[in-house]
Amino acid sequence: MKELENNQWLEDQSYKVDRLYSDGNFTECKRILLDLLEQEPGYGRAHYQLGNLYYMKLDEYAKAEYHLKLAMKFAPKFASSYCTYLYMLNYLNRHEEVVRHAQKALKIPGVSRFTVYHQLGKSCEKARLFSEAKQAYKNAQFATCDESEINMAINAIKRIRKKRIMKWKRLLI
């Protein structure tokens, strides 16, 4: 598969799709990617792009999951696939899968550890696992040097504190 990832024609097609995506031409993106994958079914980046397109723009989550999994299979070091899949699992409220996938994603060189921990925190928060969420947000805070990401993590921890207080107040009523 390594040969596929370095093929100039495939890379050119991938960049073309990126430009079309930026221009909002999603129909043409999908057409090019499907054609490309018909010719080179093991091209991981194309699976990522198609999975991302299905998730972000076309709301076809089963197809998105299929292609994102193939992206991780065929291009296991392409970190973006892991984060996008994590976003989708979290969006679909699949908490147990978020936890499992986050553990796997953290082992990938170059993956945004902030993103992984932040998504894990959000998933735990939605599942009302506030202690686990707080720990994940703390990990996110220390996994980055970006000031806006640090502030996101700090604000998430503050939100967890408020939710814990609200939970206790309800129990006392």
What would your notes on this structure say?
The protein is mainly alpha-helical and 173 residues long. The chain contains ten helices and no strands. It has helices at residues 2-5, 8-22, 26-39, 44-56, 61-74, 79-91, 95-105, 113-126, 130-142, 147-172. The termini are far apart. The mean pLDDT is 93.
Tags for this model:
single chain, 10 helices, mainly alpha, 79% helix, 173 residues
Brief synopsis:
This protein has 173 residues and is mainly alpha-helical. Helix content is 79%, strand content 0%.
List the helices and strands and how they pair.
Blueprint: H1 2-5, H2 8-22, H3 26-39, H4 44-56, H5 61-74, H6 79-91, H7 95-105, H8 113-126, H9 130-142, H10 147-172
| Strand residues, percent | under 5%
Structural class: mainly alpha
**What's the main sheet like?**
none
Assign a percent range to the helix content. Answer: over 70%
Query: Can you count the beta strands?
Result: 0
Q: What is the CA-atom radius of gyration, in angstroms?
A: 19 Å
The gross shape turns out to be elongated
The number of helical elements comes to: 10
Overall mean pLDDT stands at: 93
Oligomer: single chain
- Provide the succession of SSEs: HHHHHHHHHH
User: Which residues form runs of ≥5 with pLDDT under 50?
Assistant: none
User: How far apart, in Å, are the first and last alpha carbons?
Assistant: 61 Å
